[in-house]
Amino acid sequence: MEITKGKISIRQAYIIVILALTAPSLRVIPNYVARIAKEAGWETPFLVIIPGVILVYVINSLFQKHQEDSLYEVFMSVFGKTITKIIFLVYGIWIVFLCSMYLRMFGERFVGTLLFNANMRALLGLMMIFVGIAVLKKFETLGRLSEILLLFFIILFTTVTLAILPQIHLENLYPVTYYDTLPVLKSVLPVFSLFSYITPLMILGDKISHKDKLKTYGKRALYVLAAFFLMLILSTVGLFGYSVSQQFIFPYYFVLNSVSLFGNVERLESLFISTWLASDFTIVLFFLFMAKQTAQKLLPIKKQIFYVIPLCIVIYVLAVMVFRNVSQVEQFASNILYYINIGLFALIPLIALIVGKVRKVV
Amino acid sequence: MIKRIYFFIYLVIFIVFLSWSEKIIPTRNEISELQLSRVAGFDVEEPSKKVQFSLVVDSEKEKSKNASSDQNSNSGKKENVITVTSDTFAMCLQGLQGYREKTFTTGHIKNILIGENAAKNGLVEEFDFAARNYDLRFDTNVYVTKDTSAKDFLITGTKEVSSLNAGIENLSTTLRGASAPGDYKVVDILKMLTSEQKSGLIPAVELVKEEEEKKEWRIENSEEKGESVRMEVAGYGIIKDAKLISFFSEEELHGYNTVNENYINLMLTLKNGEEKVGIDISDIKVKKNFVFSKDKLEEVKLEIELVGDITEVSDGKNLLKEGLSFYEQKTSEMVTNYVLDAVKKSQETDVDFLKIKQSFRMQHPYRYEKMKDDFEKEFSTLPVTVDVQTTINKTYGMFSVVEE
Fold first, then answer.
1. In contact, B255 and B341? CB cutoff 8 Å
2. Pick from B187, B194, B195: CB nearest A258
3. What structural domains does chain B harbor?
4. B365 to A177: CB separation less than 8 angstroms, yes or no
5. Is the ipTM of this complex over 0.95?
6. Do B266 and B350 meet the contact criterion of CB atoms below 8 Å apart?
7. Most confident of the ranges A342-346, B129-133, B253-257, B394-398
8. Per the CB < 8 Å rule, is B187 touching A259?
9. Which residues of B touch A117 (CB under 8 A)?
10. Rounded to whole angstroms, what are the CA distances from A173 to A131, A234, A237, B146?
């Protein structure tokens, strides 16, 4: 795909989303799916394709007549200036909050699994410094970086999954009956809410080229993510059973902790941790880029350093101050986060499409 | 550009100094600074109900007074057992940290032994500690020590074998080969404890005095003088409501292994003990069928197909003349009794170690949903019929040694 200077291709944009989603997926999906859908949880990735494809079609339709625009310009033409500013203000606040939550989650994971006695505030500060520097660079850098990192991730994840497959117990994934229909449908929500991050990606729409391929690559990204989610559920719930998987805050870490490769190589978590760290870095950077872009649209300040530094400070302070412990982050995620994500990143674009069609601007 | 390079250099220096601080990011211990242990034991001290945490470590002259040490007095032995008693296992581990110059770690523990008393008191406390201890691997093997505490087992074990871990690993291989489908790991016990019934099995090991050998064999070693004690596998302990309630007998163990399609070896004793025939059952297929009358579960039928080999005939008679079907029928009768013993145990204890409930759930998920709350109650009085068909496959190339 030909790359326009100063822009990333839609393919690279989706790769950023996939890589950014790996960190929350490794944390959220095995735990939530086990908790809600029990042994039928492996059906969830198949079902999430349906709302996922609908969202891709909605985003694609919004950008049909706005190939060079970002989501802000699309909303401007649909809702007008005032409503768009309000929506983007809400988007901005929520994105900053998400960014701080994922930053905190990175800290919790590292302090909770690897560096037990480390000072979490220092870890968060280090991460924020690196992300703050990276966000001052061009968006294309993140695009190229994600392409390389994703390759590493796929190789590692597939190797680990293949090592786990012979140890999976079928009775942990079966039987599935119609009694499982409602729980499985419920478990689609948190998984779909992660996929809805393709909407904030389009805040940077003016920096993404080849939006005519938005639908094609969107569906491909969705299938890749569904396959990733499926492997994740099979290797976690299939290995531990749902009753154990739902007890862990980071179930996949314990999968890595419990398996050996060909009966000889153990401690696979150390192999995986660098990729996991890269994914944490990507998701925090992803949301910081969106927060920066949103601020740029709302505030008439040209020098980006003037809002990047305050944003970094706000995100860091929120990450440190708002959540007191990992249980609070979990409660926030399971009770509030997914509904707001779906509301903001799936329903608002759908409303925009309907209004835009009525007004014949999209 | 120069400014950026300077900024980058300052940043690297800043980060390096920040990372250097022990208060911010503690450095990892070198392997030489760690006190490694391959085997650990969990016990409950009576009557105080305090917990005891024992670790088998390489022998070293102890200086501290904080913990008791039962060092093996035999020369040439390298291991001893350190036991700490406290209110919680975490405090035990903490108490150990000042005991030697090295840092105690659970990261290299390969085998965990639970004392019988501790298991009878309940496994929740032990495995809550194990699950929260991030160093401890989830694929660590778990055993319960029959008729003794884990501490005593470890102390005796270190006297009897040069490497206790290797000794237990060897038991684990025996367990896998002759009695069980595989080892039970920490994660398997966690799965059992997080299930609704909190019931299942746990492999058992025991210390057996030579003269009190309960097995079908007795071993003597000319090098050993005086009383000899040996570590043996002791089948399984049965866990219900997270507590150890009983152990399998030999017959129940054979029955359990048959229904769970594990390798078994049998000895047919015929003609009032005059004739003994050794049979290895290498292939077992079990079908669990559920018979309903209208919607009510009336009966469970276990259809078992065995394929075995004759390994020895005590009087060397000609098997061709006698006919293999005679031995096949005798084997079937014997295995039927074993399986019925195991079924009886399962019904008495309400523990689904024969996986009958699990099979029912897999085969009839909708019926299971309706009766899942009462299944144990109904199963405890349900008739179970066993039909065993045996095929003798090999006689190892000969029909007889002694021609009649």
1. yes
2. B187
3. 28-247 (no CATH), 250-404 (3.30.300.210)
4. yes
5. no
6. no
7. A342-346
8. no
9. 26
10. 39, 8, 7, 34
